[in-house]
Design goal:
By secondary structure, the chain is α+β, with helices and mostly antiparallel strands. It has 5 helices and 30 strands. The chain is extended, with a radius of gyration of 33 Å.
Length: about 450
């Protein structure tokens, strides 16, 4: 027989076990809930941080680091951002004669400034009037007029030293593979001296290596703007010649478009620097020459193929147009001779500052059928950020004549002047590979800042 007390005890034990299970399940649910809540909170917080970062980046890129204004003239610009700008006058000692907070601007609206030539200003931009975004330099410049050219030119530049393109192996006279230059020289180096003597031409450099007799050479090399001395020992190849296993270059040639000539006979061209095709670095130039050139062929651009203008350059004295003195990321610059000055057949026109550029119709001046002509384009984007040197202007070719001849923007048109509302606003610099009708340009004021 089963006793009643035993049965009741079993029921109580089962009830207790059930309560324990319920309690354990509730604790597990609460832990999962806390995990879900923490995960959701972290996700929300990260999303807010990411959104705030995107907003900050979007606003920051709308603010130029530099704003140029003409002396004595009213200059208007609109940034259209929820921020304020506080203006201070900057002296040579770095102090301001404008009381703090005396000049505040609402940057969500159109702002008009009028300045004196001998003044310098800085504007502190604050998001919503509280959070500092950046300081903007306001530079006062004199008004300037330039002659737009838009004609093709042949370019020859001499490197400042011998440029190292790369290193490689060669088979020695003993059948062993050697590469003395490997791990010592690198692509983009400029060899200035060999054993203390200056070298400017690759043939001279190769000769000095061959005449070394296998003795150690001390090379003075410029790398990333710094000079250093490197030691290297040539080895004999299978033909008995001494080598160090490097490829070098001492010049570059190409075709581009002259952008402008100023009143003093100085020119600007390309709107971007001359870079080495192998190292993709801006070439350090010792000097250069501008030549008259004729376009002999145009490869029409298409999707994935930007196209190209091929020019014939005859390196003779009677075709020299001027001297190239500067190669920078803003273009190539120099002075014209009498023949070069003859390219400035148009009247000089005033420059247009970047805050004056409008979205919509404009023109470019280029030579694709024998003489410079104006062709219609549309300004589709304006990027005021000063750091975006060569891509401040987005444009699209709309002229059916130019589209029929070239398909849009092609290589060789870099430097073609961009004109809007009678003002010289920039120059073509790049083509969009995916769509040759579209491209980029540099603000003319950026070219003039070289």
């Amino acid at each position: 027989m089963r006793r009643v007390g035993d049965r009741g005890g079993n029921i109580q034990e089962q009830a207790g076990e059930h309560m324990v299970i319920l309690l354990q399940n509730w604790k597990r649910r609460m832990r999962r809930y806390r995990i879900y809540r923490i995960t959701l909170s972290l996700t929300l917080a990260l999303s807010c941080v990411a959104l705030a970062g995107l907003v900050y980046y979007d606003i920051d890129r709308c603010i130029p680091s530099v704003i140029n204004v003409r002396a004595g003239q009213e200059e208007s610009f609109r940034l259209g951002i929820p921020a304020t700008g506080e203006i201070v006058s900057v002296s040579e000692q770095g102090t301001s004669n404008i009381p703090e907070g005396a000049v505040r601007l609402d940057l969500s609206r159109t702002v008009t400034l009028k300045t004196a030539l001998d003044s310098a200003y800085r504007m502190q931009v604050k998001l919503f009037g509280f959070f500092t975004l950046k300081n903007v330099d306001i530079r006062v410049i004199e008004d300037q007029e330039l002659i737009p050219v838009g004609a093709p030119v042949g370019i020859y530049v001499k490197t400042n030293g011998v440029l190292v393109i790369g290193t490689g192996d060669f088979q020695g006279s003993d059948g062993v593979s050697y590469s003395p230059g490997k791990y010592i020289l690198k692509s983009g180096d400029y060899i200035r001296n060999v054993n203390g003597e200056k070298v400017t031409e690759k043939d001279d450099f190769i000769r000095r290596v061959e005449e070394s007799g296998g003795k150690e050479l001390i090379l003075t090399v410029e790398r990333d703007g710094e000079l250093m001395e490197l030691e290297i020992t040539p080895r004999r190849d299978v033909n008995g010649n001494y080598k160090i296993g490097v490829w070098v270059r001492d010049n570059a040639q190409g075709v581009g478009t002259m952008t402008y000539i100023d009143a003093q006979g100085n020119f600007g061209a390309l709107g971007h620097g001359i870079t080495d095709v192998d190292t993709s670095t801006l070439m350090h130039m010792e000097g250069g020459t501008l030549y008259q050139t004729d376009i002999v062929e145009i490869q029409k651009g298409s999707a994935g193929n930007p196209g190209e203008m091929t020019g014939m350059i005859i390196y003779s004295n009677d075709r020299i147009l001027g001297e190239i003195t500067d190669n920078s990321n803003r273009g190539i610059f120099g002075s014209c001779n009498g023949r070069g000055m003859e390219m400035g057949v148009r009247e000089a026109i005033p420059i247009g500052l970047k805050q004056e550029i409008e979205m919509g119709p404009a023109q470019i001046l280029c030579t694709v059928d024998g003489e410079p002509k104006y062709y219609d384009v549309e300004i589709t984007g304006i990027h005021l950020d000063h750091d975006n040197v060569n891509r401040g202007i987005e444009l699209k070719v709309t002229d059916p004549r130019l589209l029929a001849l070239t398909g849009g923007i092609v290589q060789g048109m870099s430097g073609s002047p961009i004109i809007q509302n009678g003002k010289f606003i920039g120059a073509v610099t790049h083509v969009l590979v995916q769509d040759s009708r579209k491209g980029y340009g540099i603000f003319i004021e950026n070219m003039l800042e070289r």
